Amino acid sequence: MAEDIKTKLENYRTAPFDARFPNQNQTRNCWSNYLDYHRCQKALEAKGEDTLPCQWYKRVYTSLCPISWVQKWDDQRAEGTFPGKI
Amino acid sequence: MAHHSHPYHMVDPSPWPLTGAIAALLMTSGLAVWFHFHSTSLMLLGTILLTLTVIQWWRDIVREGTFQGHHTPPVQKGLRYGMILFITSEVLFFLGFFWAFYHSSLAPTPELGGNWPPAGITPLDPFEVPLLNTAVLLASGVTVTWAHHAIMEGKRKQAIHALALTILLGAYFTFLQAMEYNEAPFTIADGVYGCTFFVATGFHGLHVLIGSTFLAICLARQISHHFTSEHHFGFEAAAWYWHFVDVVWLFLYISIYWWGS
Fold it and tell me: The complex's ipTM?
């Protein structure tokens, strides 16, 4: 499984088509992957496991999200005012 | 009374449409003045003029119908159509606020945390006071129907009791809602949740007050022997309006209070 993820990450060019978000408005796609990355980090760190699989989500949201959004959400998480559930 | 060979009502000249229009102008421009210059005088003047207009206009209609006999069956039919069209327009009015609510709640934005209710909002428990309010309004729908049947059967005392009970239930709803408003953990300024909640339920409350007033006028008229068992359209119009208010509440309860929590 880790080998698959490694090859997946090595072959990454940009975010692939995600059938959960088929339309032009990709806000939810960006938001979902941002949340999934941080939830993945939190869950795997709690178990003491390697967080490499989480890198996929990070790659996707970095490809999709406006940089200002990511900065704003990172600031909110630091302040404790992030509205999403992580 | 003029003699004519048709059953329609050629209304006498009246100043109330003009005073009503002036009142509407003063109220709306008064609202703008309040927003920009912090003075409520113009708006207050408009409201007073509106109150005087509606009292005298509807008083004249009661005079024309009950005392002068102008409300023949065709005239009454026209009044029925009018009330139905008005209530339909009110349905569309509320539809807009439901649209706004569903637009925001079906696809909650990241600013809300992607959830509904939004992050930080504690909604009211739908099974506490809101459920009681639902029961109160449903009961008032039963009592107003009781009153109608009593009027149609010529049972004067019963009609008075049933109508009074309806108004009391309406007042109880208003009291309960006022308490809820006072104690709610969120305000109208709390994002799109607070906004959709208080604008939709607020306009509903205004319609409860209007409907209660209409029913109270009917109670006064019933006591004064205005209604006959065959001809009591004023009461029917009030009852239709009251049922409309009840139905709007049911939609509010299911959408905003229950699904929205």
Answer: 0.87
